[in-house]
Amino acid sequence: MNDRLASLKRAWSCAECRKKTSFNRLSRLIIVTSSYWNLILVFALILTLNCSESAEVSSGFGLSGSSQECDTEGEVFPLPGSLENKCFTCLCKGGRVECEKQSCPSLQGCFLIVSDQKDGCCEVCKGCKLHNITYKSGAQIAQDCSTTTCSAGVLTRSPVQCYVPCKNPAPPKPGQCCPSCRTCYLNGREYRHGEEATLLGDPCVRCKCQMGSMVCSKNSCPVLSCPASNTYLEKGECCPRCNGSRTVYIPRTVCLLGEKAFPSGTSFRLDTCTNCTCMETTAVCERTACPPLECQPIHQAMTQGSCCPKCVEPEAQYPKDQCIFNDAIYKNEERWDVDNCRSCTCDWGKIRCTEQKCHKNLPCPWGYKLKYLPNKCCPECVGEDGVCTVFGDPHYRSFDGRVFNFQGACKYLLASDCRGKTFSIRVRNDARESRAFSWTRTVTLKVKEGRVTLGQKMRIKFNGKRVALPFGQGNLLIYQDGYSAMVETGNGVKLLWDGDSFLEVSVPHSMQGRLCGLCGNFNGNKADDFTTRRGGPANHPSAFGQSWRVGGKKACSRPEEVKGPEPLCQKNWRTRIKAEKLCNAIKSSVFSGCHKTVPIERFFKSCTLDMCECPQGRKCHCEVLTAYARACQRNGVDILDWREATGCSHKRKW
Questions:
Q1: pLDDT digit string (tens) for 335-367?
Q2: pLDDT tens digits, residue range 443-481?
Q3: Is 249 found in the same domain as 211?
Q4: In this structure, is residue 122 part of a structural domain?
Q5: Which UniProt keywords apply (predicted)?
Q6: Rounded distance, CA 203 to CA 209, Å?
Q7: 3-class DSSP state for residue 308?
Q8: CB within 8 Å of 298: residues ≥ 6 apart
Q9: Do 281 and 137 fall within a single domain?
Q10: What are phi and psi of 161, to 5 degrees?
């Protein structure tokens, strides 16, 4: 516990499935004429909505019509009004109007994906920009005996290292950097004009036979934007690649590299061979290209503090009952691990290595996600944590993804281990100054270590006494996490509380089917989440919520039977305009990088609803923006500095 208190390691969990809506089938495309429009395109689309959580979406629509003729070959016909779709282009071809869906570029191997703001149709891999010149990811420019490569927001520049596999080579020809051999002989064979080859001992050395002469050079590998744990190297390949991807909104003053964010203008050393500088959102890295080595990779070793490997003495100089690898001596039949995926064995002076093969597209059952674990070579299906969210008036999202509103102003059982009785979470809702809505006022967690109370303005108590953070008791840990307080328990239950009304509860996958309360039973079926305390189904959120009420009437801030008046937005147009103005922040460019991943509709609706009954002096829209930013983060999209951009940095960051 002392180590945990010292490190305060953040532990984020992802339990929401990523939402995506995709066109599964374009069943019919018909063009009709109208007296008002010269040409109207009508689509009959069957949409498959690949969603794993509740969302308000409309199904496909269909209209009929007749084919439309056209005169000017190649003329573009725009889609008018509400039928406009930037993913489709309609042209006159052969006297008929034909429409084609835009072909999006492949994102395989790209770790940083951004939304294409120009057409709003395709996601694209983050490119690079330097001196007002923009490069697409994957672009490689050779100039002045150096190469510049753009890889997902990282621009790597390195000099070309020449390799000369012959004696008395010819000097470099005009426009070339390296000398050439007068014959095309390499790796024990002759190559013909135009053929390319790689050096057996170094796959990064590439040679090409041109008019009877062989020219060889070696480039350094580009710096990757993903963490080292997300890279893999194919057998026979020179450079590692990124595995997986993340969609990120990146401000113009930050570079993302690995697991870190660097402010623009910052210079840093990535490794002994690489120095980088953040220029706006592009990390510009200067990397040393190591010279080619004549020895096999198993006879190459790094020395401390050096950038490039060197050849070690060949194994023939050592006894046959031992092997040398990276300056270490291994006995005959001794086995050792090179990394998480490779292991080697000493076989009478010869080193024999094997590499574990992974299934990159291994399917996982519901509630599981493919993840790379520490000290593991291949990804494994790991059970995802369940996440329940409460915010605003309050709005609830259950562990299984059911979304509902419940404005009860009493004390309720939010979540509990109804089988093992290992924990329980109760919330007390307060009507504040509203007769229509309520907000979460306090949260009480009961575990074997004691009782934790999370109150307004970050007043945190343990067993009734105010405590300062960080605080630990047994396996219980409470600490600051940015603008919020994080509570971690020994059984894997975590609470994130912002000191106002936003609460996120996450539980480990092992608790599936054991839970009850307003957050549901966590059994993978959101249809039965409205199960009451007595075990029967409820038809309405109000009946479901009241069944989980605890405590007496003194815990209520207004009588249950009192029905509040219409929200202020119904009768006050100034309040309505203010609500829409503040809530439009969720539609702005600040969150645009997440719009395709987490739809904004229910969050915007919740925001305007909360703002209509927001007490004087409070920033109720910030609670909804907090909930949306967290939903984005759980789905792999980090929204940086959104509080400053939306005026929600009014809370002190401890």
A1: 988 877 778 888 887 778 777 777 767 788 877
A2: 999 999 999 999 998 999 999 999 999 999 999 999 998
A3: no
A4: no
A5: Membrane, Repeat, Secreted, Signal, Transmembrane, Transmembrane helix
A6: 17
A7: coil
A8: 325, 344, 351, 353
A9: yes
A10: -100, 125
